[in-house]
Amino acid sequence: MEAVPQNIVDKFGRVHDYLRISLTERCNLRCFYCMPEEGVALRERSVFMTAEELVAIAKTFVSLGVKKIRLTGGEPLIKKNAEIIIRELGKLPIELTITTNAVVVDRYIDVMKEAGIKSINVSLDSLKEERFNDISRRNYFSKIVSNIELLLKNDFIVKVNAVIIRDVNDSELVDFVQWSKDKPVHVRFIEFMPFDGNNWDWDKKVSYKEMLEDIYNHFGEGEIQKIEPKPNDTARNFRIKGAPGTFGIISTVTNPFCDTCNRIRLTADGKIKNCLFSEDETDLLTAYRKNQPITPKILDAINAKHKELGGHEKFTNESVVLLKNRSMITIGG
Ligand code: SAM
Ligand code: SF4
Q: Which residues 6+ apart lie within 8 Å of 135 measured at CB?
């Protein structure tokens, strides 16, 4: 019998031990940078993984050395059976975590604790109610803020993701950092990335360098400590001296971290995307439903991974026009 490989390794020697699973393409918010204005077409339920299929496929990844699984979406916590998925994945020998907009997180506190989840990423792009509600095209700001408080009270590590977009929320960098000085929140500023239907423009992204300059100018260089990066970190992290929280910058556009990438993405319809920006997808769900082995498909999909940005050159206004990709909400961020 052929020996099963221990790890999922690509042709550049990168070991892939971190799986991000999208539970659904649906969402209770409508963030303009994530979802096209016209929305995404709702597809028949049968094209998506059921809870049982998702757990079975996840187990195959774990047998191939995956050590960390993040649930994402769309909004993972509005998936029917999200509770079953969290409980079942919680039994695996992995670090389980979740990225959520936190609108309904209060309903899952006990489930998440029981499943051993320690750290949760919450997306919040503005600390100003009106602005956040404009960005997300819904009115859940106060619910999200009180749910972040609830997570902190329950001793979860809370990382807050904020996509920074010029003339939208770039004036709030200092306020977010101040928040990390006052509370144990770990804010990560994300450069605005191009996806289908989000009207990305080079000038709308705020670069790593610009963000850091703004923060240094306000707090002063002497007040800011760099935090040593861990392997596979995507954010470069900092702390205001003595602060309970931290802040970091994820610079996918101006300074990608592809060299140390260990991520595999599984879409809600059961397809592997070997990079956020890859055009190729590998259909695991159909193979699984036909009782075909999925391990060779997983290994081939990762072996075909490009060195950088899914095989694209650095993004420019001209190159993104040719970019063929799903919208972020249907990939799973
Ligand atoms: N609904 C959940 C949430 O918002 O946290 C999970 C899914 S969401 C697609 C995952 C992450 O992708 C969020 O932190 C969101 O801010 C980020 N994201 C979405 N579109 C993006 C874009 N165009 N550029 C950068 N980050 C983006
Ligand atoms: Fe929904 Fe998250 Fe996308 Fe916002 S970023 S529309 S919360 S999936």
A: 31, 32, 33, 125, 126, 168, 169
